[in-house]
Design brief:
By secondary structure, this protein is α/β, with parallel strands linked by helices. The chain contains 11 helices and 11 strands.
Amino acid sequence: MCAKQVTKIGVLTSGGDAPGMNAAVRAVVRTGIYHGLEVFGIYRGYSGMIDDDIVQMNSRSVANIIQRGGTILKTARSKDFFEIEGREKAYKNLAKRGINGLVIIGGDGSFRGAQKFSHEFDIPCIGIPGTIDKDIAGTDFTIGFDTAVNTAVEAIDKIRDTADAHDRLFIVEVMGRDAGYIALHSGIATGAENILIPEAKTNIEELVNSLTEKEKRQKLVNLIVVAEGDEFGANEIAEVIRVRLPQTDTRVCILGHIQRGGSPTCLDRLIASRMGYHSVECLLEGRNNVMVGILNNKVHYTPLDKAVKAKQKITDDWFKIVKILAS
């Protein structure tokens, strides 16, 4: 734990953008200023730290952004930050401004970079989980997840209307390269018959048998929600169904990056504001190198080294719910 008094802090957004990141930036800036700190915005994540793209911020810098998706600080993934030379350059840019505390809004990859950087240069870092995937342990929600799920639900509801009108099977692919939470939550919320996610092995025979049985019962609407990280993927699943069940009128719809954008929901704005506020409080209290999360509606602190190792796991209860409700 770093004992130095924090007087100037930097805030950055890193990795994939997520709705609610702006609300977190706003909370960090205004809480820091309230406590008499100088606050600097670092553009394009770690790349901006290396390139010296850093500006001092004031309350007006973050006016009228809480409702906006994306991030006003931009975001990027930096290969140079993986190298010690890149991190040394980043440190020098912080040091010349006297920045001695960092708030990093991003996912586990961003936290790994923060952990390494803090260890090498003795700069306290606080992580705020900003990712639509909700795959970080130590928090019930990550910034952006609720918005992404609601976007997916709205789209799938509309797809259900046309599926019903034409008696078609729709296979809808949602985001989630390594985690199936968006597929799981949106699939349950829209009454999908099957939900395929990376955390569970996809049984093609079981899927085909399920569709065959539902066809015999003349089930009017069939929806399959697939996470992009599923071992087969939406297009391959569709091809199998077209071969095995040629009588089934099958369509694929890939929602893509629409899930990453848009105005954040109330929940995302609230948790982002709470996390941003508490991240500054952490730096002032000397509670360093932790991720600020929310568990059971209470603020929870997870050491960064644990946050980057642990993954939010999907329990068997969820799979049981899907099986029963889709029958």
